[in-house]
């Protein structure tokens, strides 16, 4: 898999992940806050929603009044911006180019999702037939946290946090393509030491498809 050209966007997402929750939801204005959040929501999940928020804030000149009107935490965004500046300087010192896939490209968002997958491939869950998720390898039954922007249940989901309350929840989630997992981390998804179950069977099908595609090319 060719390296996705999206280091600019990954810096922004990493900065947002390192900052406090950007979405405000006061009890007395919960409906209005939910409607405001929906304007930024990306169908593929929370990481891209965070990116949308950061880009929108920048395009509105980092305006605190704009944040107030859209139920966004201005301090969180300022913190993310500061972190991003630090990360950018580190990249410059290490001669790492900051690049982006053209926004009009159909690969723009999928490249970002691939890049996030390459960094967090150990934090993945697979959808089971019963409708709940199972974390990869340690086989914990989990559910999508109510705060996630995902309004559907993708077969494979990457998550940032495991939250234990009355249920096991995964929070800050991203819809990913399972085939990316065996591309970016074949060592981790080695079937020889994988626990049995639906997840392993899904991986077996993907490996078989990959081999078939390879043989069809020759």
TrEMBL record:
This is RNA helicase. One of its GO terms (molecular function) is hydrolase activity. Keywords: ATP-binding, Helicase, Hydrolase, mRNA processing, mRNA splicing, Nucleotide-binding. It comes from Chlamydomonas schloesseri. InterPro entries: DEAD-box_helicase_OB_fold, P-loop_NTPase. It catalyses: ATP + H2O = ADP + phosphate + H(+). Coiled coil: none annotated. The keyword Nucleotide-binding applies. Pfam families: HA2_C, OB_NTP_bind. GO terms for biological process: mRNA processing; RNA splicing. Residues 112-188 form the DEAD-box helicase OB fold domain. Its EC number is 3.6.4.13.
């Amino acid at each position: 898999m060719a390296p996705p050209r999206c280091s600019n966007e990954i810096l922004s997402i990493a900065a947002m992940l390192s900052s406090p929750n950007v979405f405000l939801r006061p009890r007395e204005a919960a409906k209005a806050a939910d409607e405001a959040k929906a304007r930024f929501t990306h169908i593929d999940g929370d990481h891209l929603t965070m990116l949308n928020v950061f880009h929108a804030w920048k395009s509105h000149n980092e305006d605190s009044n704009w944040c107030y009107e859209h139920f966004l935490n201005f301090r969180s965004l300022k913190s993310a911006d500061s972190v991003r500046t630090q990360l950018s300087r580190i990249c410059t010192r290490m001669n790492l180019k900051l690049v982006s896939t053209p926004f009009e490209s159909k690969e723009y968002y999928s490249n970002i999702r691939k890049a996030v997958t390459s960094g967090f491939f150990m934090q993945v869950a697979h959808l089971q037939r019963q409708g709940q998720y199972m974390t990869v390898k340690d086989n914990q039954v989990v559910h999508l946290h109510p705060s996630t922007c995902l309004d559907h249940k993708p077969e494979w989901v990457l998550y940032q946090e495991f939250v234990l309350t009355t249920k096991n929840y995964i929070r800050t989630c991203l819809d990913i393509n399972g085939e990316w997992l065996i591309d970016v981390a074949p060592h981790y998804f080695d079937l020889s030491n994988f626990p049995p179950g639906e997840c392993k069977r899904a991986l077996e099908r993907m490996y078989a498809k990959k081999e078939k595609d390879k043989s069809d090319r020759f």
